[in-house]
Amino acid sequence: MLPDITTEKLVYAHGTESSAVNKTGEWRFMTPERMPGLSPCRQGCLLDGEVPAWLEAVKREQWEEAWQIMRRNNPFPALTGYTCFHPCTENCNREQLDSGIDIPSVEKAIGLWRLDQYKPGQQRDLLKDEIAVIGSGPAGLSCAYYLNQVGYRVTVYEKSDQIGGMLALGIPEYRLPRSILNKELNLLKEEGVEFVTGCEIGQDLSLDELYEKYSEVFLAPGAWKSRKAGIPGEESRGVWNALDFLSEFNSGKQPEVKDPVIVIGGGNAAIDSARSALRMNGVNHVTLVYRRSRAEMPAYQPEVEAAENEGVELIFNALPGKIDTVDGRVSGAEFNYSKTNRQGLVVDKSSSFHKSCGTVIMALGQEQDSSIFSSLEKDVSFYAGGDLVTGPATVSEAIRAGRIAAEAMIARLENLPEPELCLPVEDPISFEDLYLEASVNLEIKDQQEMPEKEASRCLGCGTCNSCGICYLFCPDMAIDIVDGRYELNLDYCKGCGICYRECPSRALILKGGK
Amino acid sequence: MRIDEYKQESEMLNPGHNACPGCGAALAVRYLTRALGPNLAIVLTASCWSIISGMPPLTALKCPILHCPFPSAGSVGSGLRRGLNARGQHNTTVVVLAGDGGTFDIGLQALSGAAQRNEDYLFVCYDNEAYMNTGMQTSSATPFGARTNTAPYPLFKEGQKKDIMQIMAAHGIPYAATATVAFPDDMERKLKKAQEIRGFRFMHILSPCPPGWGTDSSDTIHLSRLAVNTGFFPLYEIVNGVSWKMTCQPEGKRTPLKEYLQNQRRFKQMEDLRIEALQEEVDHDWEALQEKIEATKCSD
After folding, report:
1. Structural domain count of chain B
2. pLDDT, tens digit, 9 for 90 and up, residues A366-375
3. DSSP bridge pairs for A323
4. Residue pLDDT, tens place only, A244-287
5. Cβ distance of A494 and B21 shorter than 8 Å
6. Which domains are assigned to chain A?
7. A286, A319 in Cβ contact below 8 A?
8. b/e per residue, B157-171, with b = 16+ CB within 10 A?
9. Which of chain B's ends, N or C, has fewer CB atoms near its CB within 10 Å?
10. What is the ipTM, given to two decimal places?
11. Is the model's pTM score more than 0.90?
């Protein structure tokens, strides 16, 4: 029998070599380029987060990469995963195909991965200037994180004994497990951020003293002053204001509450108070009274629904007229009906109802307390952020404010150009802009496990989601696979534009010339 | 098929080949060689691919290529198969690669002879609907109404495109199928199926040609997809010449043919009357195909 000559031997018997020495990229008349567009989730994100980019990293199971993308905008994905109301999910383009991406679960997973994986590295030498942060809420923590990462020595001053501000005292345990918060705080301590608790600026230390000691000061004391209703009986026993009640409840003390409970107000603090009260021993009935209609409630609607499902009774269009007392203790409250017309809220004095109760929780909103500035006599420019600037807002907005303040401080101290604040103002990529012709016929990467599976459902919307369609359809082998990502290889790209035309996420542009 | 399972190492097409930007034929052969490789020998008749494969000593494919005269693809394929068998290389897949000229016109007699003898190889026709390599002369694969350099304005190609699939089915060969570049998963499945079968196998691959058709090079995949969605180029397979089966027809109504024609310069000056005539022809062929598929279902 004749010897078996493999085809490989046949090729090289003729002395042939690969045409790869032909750099056909020289023919190119158009050049594809990756150009991230604005997706609805990025537009919705309170932190300007690059949502599709970290979803893509999770899809490839590259958690470290996902965390590195995440921390550019959000250093605490675990905290926001639990507490953020996630406006990013509101306009997800995938909704028009089947259902929107569950972005929170992936965000939370990245945060938990980070907390699990974190190992204290070698003690870094923090050699740069000392900076003080007032308030250890989300804004202060985020500012401290970013400053610490580039080597500043940061000291955070907190007036209460607990670190975390609203995260520790305002947000109930069922919305943010304290173990997560504590891990996050320990991690900051490990990294070299110092915390001083029980020190109120303006009383224990003056702002002037801080400005003498530190190169920069960031003010993020929050908004802790509760609004008053100005009705008779407001000061009697058994009337709580929501923040005091939540602080006591969240720090593990049992605030004195008697059944039944009435919560007055329609914001997130009201809902948190109502749901927390319902979780207390001996409380069976919680009623929430709000002066306007359900649609006008400032609270996050899914939380309202959750409260209703747990058994909180909701009454709308009613205002408290007075609080009845027996022996200086609350016994009930008188309400008047109200309605909104062109002049605003109108109270109908003629129709009223009475509800008896053991406790009233007033959640009429918080205000900034400007008394902190009374201790400032020097003429200095300062950085401030969080609820102090915006009024009562969300954890995510506060984290963003902390980041921006840190960037601005670094720019000023190191003479760098001013950082850009906003995303480009453009229309986000809509479902119609996406080009899903190819993906409906092809089986796109599907992961089996959550949350990778959830992340792999992301359509990208302006960001490469590594679907591989450009690689599949490139006639010139000008796309390389590098660690599961698809990279343009302009040595061979002839500029036909197929990748640009077929890209389902619209992550490429085609430029004239080489 | 999952894209992420593709490895760059399993690609048999080298970068740096000489195809025009957006070439459908280069893409078709890329899918073909990846699906059938690496133990593969290609017989290449005169066609665009003679140029794409490069000047010796360079080669665009990681497998041997045997160039042969224009009319002889069918015979050379038979010879190579028997030669390899004589050496005991039964596992090497022989693929004859020909353009539409080398299949529909010049190569037809050798093709027919090989099909009739049921030679054991795969004949792949990549169809760009004219003699594109020599300068866009009309072939019998050019569709009705198209302009070519041998039928310039105000002339146009008269007469229908030759129905090569019916011709091949009439030979009663074990396997014949159509495929196109916009549906690589469908093409790969058919190629793998054909590779398992012994005897003469035939694949008809529609590969858009941007310079010849007068289209934007980025439209290659889009046009290929439209050709299927309009029913102009349905995707089906024929087993033993009698058993017809649709493989990959997008759901819903067929797209009007006009959408497929309007962005191609070769159809640009086509009057509405002729578009209607071509639409009727496509509808007629579609009905005829559906009847054959229904008849197959009944006999099963």
Report:
1. 1
2. 888 777 777 7
3. A333
4. 888 888 888 888 888 889 999 988 889 999 999 988 888 888 99
5. yes
6. 30-117+432-512 (3.30.70.20), 130-223+368-413 (3.50.50.60), 227-367 (3.50.50.60)
7. no
8. beeebbebbebbbeb
9. C
10. 0.93
11. no
